[in-house]
Amino acid sequence: MDGKRLQEIEIAQINLRYAHTRIERPETVRALAASIERAGQTVPVIVLQSRVLLDGYLRVQALERLGRHTVMAEIWEG
Q1: CB–CB of 18/75 below 8 Å?
Q2: Three-state secondary structure along the chain?
Q3: How far is CA 36 from CA 25, 51, 52, 54, in A?
């Protein structure tokens, strides 16, 4: 991966700067949490090296709903 790396990081370390722009989808978060509970997190979130979350707000919400404190993230450098 050029300029990218996978890493498990603490959710508390992620900057959810754009969370206010997201549409609330409680049913989707519930379904995603059930899927993660069954199969684990299969798609990493995308985070800048500065820890700003670009993609994966629903996955983070689902993991928090499950009481998880970490998330698998693809860290983008640059």
Answers
A1: no
A2: CCCEEEEEEEHHHCECCCHHHCCCCHHHHHHHHHHHHHHCCCCCEEEECCCEEEECHHHHHHHHHCCCCEEEEEEECC
A3: 16, 22, 22, 20
Amino acid at 42: T
End-to-end Cα separation, the chain, in angstroms:
13
- pTM for the structure as a whole: 0.90
Each residue's pLDDT tens digit, 24-56: 999 999 999 999 999 999 999 999 999 999 999
- Round to whole Å and give the CA distance between 21 and 27: 18
Token couple for 60: 């983070």
